[in-house]
Amino acid sequence: MIRVHSIGKLLIIVSSLMLVACSQQQGDGVLTMEVTRANFNVEIPATGELEASQSTAVTVPNGLRGPQSLAWILDNFTPVKSGDVVAKMDPTRQRYKLEVEKFDFNRLSLDSDMQQQKDKTISQELQAGTQITTKEKDLAERFFSEDERVYTKIEIIEQMRNQDYLGAKMEYFDWGLAQHDAQAQAEQQLIKLKQGGYQAKIDRYKNNLSQMEILAPHDGLFVYQTGWDGAMPVVGDMMWSGFTIGTLPDTSVMQAKLFVLESEAAGLSVGKSATVYLDAYPDMPFRGKVTQVDALAKPKEKDSPVNYFQFTVSLDKTLVDIMQPGRQLSAQVHALSLTDVVTIPNQALFQKEGLYWVYLKTSEGFIKQSVTPGQRSIDSTEIVNGLTKGDVIALTTPPKRSRI
To answer: Which domain holds residue 144?
Structure first.
């Protein structure tokens, strides 16, 4: 919420004016106030924590395939050396799947051996049949005779039929050998193709098992990376390749990560100055400027109905000894600072179709006075034109009988 500087003092003044107005306007029942000139300061309160301006992300290895369960993670804010293990994935499921794929791969190897033996037996049977039929055909051709003195016509016809049969049988065996060889090769290729699929999965699970540990890329302070809902990584969380679980911040340059309620963010923009206070050192203010503001408000906690704008304040200086990542802080963003201007409560300003007015008190009653508004806070508005010091205006809509 945008708050007017020294809001307590202003409320006292406004309350006093209202009391005076009430006593003066008991006759017509309209609450009024006298217009004055004063300074108009608007500040936006925010809370958040310190973070490094620059940091190195600690991520799940890019070569890891599929979601993995986090089995262990180093404590937050722990100093680490390059190559230290900061987190481990649970390898149980990957090991189980690897054994299943190995079993299926080996089963296919046995199927391949059995099929080869079967194909070899069939091939030997066809070759043996070919050899026997060849001999039978040779004998049939050698002793074939059309001499009717030796064989009857029926016997001659039977011999001719036998030769035709043996010829057809030879063609069958030749065809069978060619077809069987092609079929045997196709079956072996199919088995190898299936084995290739299992081998790819075996390689993938072996690769995953070799990347179950997340290592620190360099020396530093390991700091958890919170998710979009503000939750920190915990054992049992599902992790994916490239997912950031923490950072190694450069603590020599710190900045403030802040949150402001959506309803209180009016006037917040890049370039505004701010004053930041560490909760642990409330008497040490630090100056800075707003360098980034989120475009959309979102909840800080999962399933929360309250939305916040996140923004960043770059600090003018960093005290390494006391400014550590994650330290809680509060801030005031100086959204507006005007000197000697006319301001009125928002409840006294009326508008319709782009036109603004107030109800100005005159000797003959209240009249509609057009005004030009300027800067605005959650409870007050600057009036650029239309009112002067000493004017008396209504704080509510006057009764019709009191207007001209």
So the answer is: 92-209
